Amino acid sequence: MIRPENASTAADAAELIDAVSRALSQMRSLRGARDALTASATVEHGRITVVVNASGSIIETYYADDINTLSYGQIARATVQAAQAAAAKVAAEQETLLAPAAELRSRMPKPEDLFEGLAALRAQLPKHTPAPLTSQSQNPLNDRRSDSHRILDR
After folding, report:
1. How far is CA 38 from CA 33, 58, 133, 142, in A?
2. d(CA 4, CA 25)
3. What is the pTM of this model?
4. Buried/exposed 130-145: b ≥16 CB within 10 Å, e otherwise
5. Other CB atoms closer than 10 Å to residue 22's CB: what's the count?
6. DSSP letters along 76-116, please?
7. pLDDT tens digit string along 24-69?
8. What phi, psi does 29 have (nearest 5°)?
9. Strands laid side by side in the 38-43 sheet
10. Helix axes 72-107 and 4-35, enclosed angle (nearest 10)
């Protein structure tokens, strides 16, 4: 039996559990919608189209019949450019789709508000940084290409 002095606490806990349950249900449905997202980008005057999934991974690439008018280097750079543009589109779509869940989450109490000392532990967690979209080191193929050009130039 709940004592009168604990009735308010019990009601608050029940309300919190109900709110969390609703939020989890909403997140499950949003997760399914998010996982189904795709986006595409077309570059080089319609010659190259790249489609990415919700993770930004390429799932389809289309080259026009006149793709042979471009060099291999142009095709490679344009394919990367299209993939990055499509990934940016899908990320924006995700942000829009997940905005209601973010708003709901912002209204819910944070775990560190409920448990003393949790904020200090959370501050120790490493921060997520996205992977770079450009090469951070020299491409070994570029080094070999440079060496072969040096040999031919002699």
Report:
1. 10, 10, 19, 33
2. 32
3. 0.61
4. eeeeeeeeeeeeeeee
5. 11
6. HHHHHHHHHHHHHHHHHHHHHHHHHHHHHHHHSPPHHHHST
7. 887 788 888 888 999 999 999 999 999 999 999 999 999 999 999 9
8. -70, -40
9. 38-43, 48-53, 58-63
10. 160
Q: Encoding tokens for residue 29?
A: 């449905």
Considering only CA atoms, which of 77, 73, 51 is closest in space to residue 62? Answer: 51
Widest CA span of the chain, in angstroms? 94
d(CA 129, CA 38): 23
Q: What are the C-alpha distances in Å from 134 to residues 17, 55, 86, 88, 137? A: 45, 18, 16, 14, 9
3-state SS, residue 124 = coil
What does the block give as tokens for 97?
A: 């789709």
